[in-house]
Design goal:
The protein is of the alpha/beta class. It is built from nine helices and eight strands. It has a single domain, classed as 3-Layer(aba) Sandwich (Rossmann fold). The chain has a six-stranded parallel beta sheet with strand order 5-4-6-7-3-8, with helices on both faces. It has a two-stranded antiparallel sheet with strand order 1-2. Helix 3 packs across helix 4 and helix 6 packs parallel to helix 8. The chain is globular, with a radius of gyration of 17 Å.
Length: about 210
């Protein structure tokens, strides 16, 4: 339903939240137990700061059973920069005592080339998530294609509008299918004014690491 619900109904919905381990006890503690379903977690930092490595780890930890702080579900991965490496999944799966081939079979992957392609992939995911037990959606990186497709200063307003539309879709997926959404965003620290322009709009209820 798109309308109101009672506080009691909302409490029941909140009880369905699953917290998925990041593989790091310290990070899990900072996040209150791991990344949460029903919301978006954004990893924001410079190039090679571990954002994509965490995405690979979450591909595995999401498939752990609930009693091992996993999500007991499948993973959808949208890659905008060509950084996903299935061979990196193998040692992570072994570390968690899981069969690497089974883990890889439970990850669906798509390479996005334009922001429109990225958005259409999200639209297509709804049908899959309605049929199969997904627990995590990764978009790495959420803003890269917007920088390419809307590169001029005069296009900034349109870019922010399209990005807000994308983030709204991600929020809807998180809430409708009780999945965790993990997005990465690369910062450029050499120009402070640019940094604030490049940030994805903060979403209430989201986590930023």
């Amino acid at each position: 339903s798109q309308g109101f619900m009672t506080g009691s109904d909302l409490l029941i919905k909140r009880k369905s939240v699953v917290r998925i381990t990041t593989g790091s006890q310290t990070l899990d503690e900072l996040l209150g137990g791991g990344i949460e379903t029903l919301c978006i977690t954004e990893a924001f930092g410079e190039f090679r700061s571990g954002k994509t490595q965490l995405a690979h780890t979450l591909c595995v930890s999401t498939q752990l059973p609930l009693h091992m702080h996993g999500g007991n579900g499948k993973v959808a991965y949208i890659d905008t920069e060509g950084t996903f490496r299935p061979e990196r999944i193998v040692p992570i799966a072994e570390r968690f005592g899981m069969d690497a081939n089974a883990v890889l079979d439970n990850i669906i992957y798509a390479r996005a080339y334009t922001y429109e392609h990225q958005y259409n992939l999200l639209l297509g995911l709804a049908a899959k998530m309605a049929e199969e037990p997904f627990r995590l959606l990764i978009v790495d990186s959420v803003i890269a294609l917007f920088r390419v497709d809307f590169s001029g200063r005069g296009e900034l307003a349109e870019r922010q509008q399209k990005l807000a539309q994308m983030l709204s879709r991600l929020t809807k997926i998180a809430e409708e299918f009780n999945v965790a959404v993990y997005i990465t965003n690369q910062g450029v620290l050499s120009n402070l004014s640019c940094l604030f322009q490049e940030r994805a709009p903060y979403i209430r209820g989201s986590q930023i690491i």
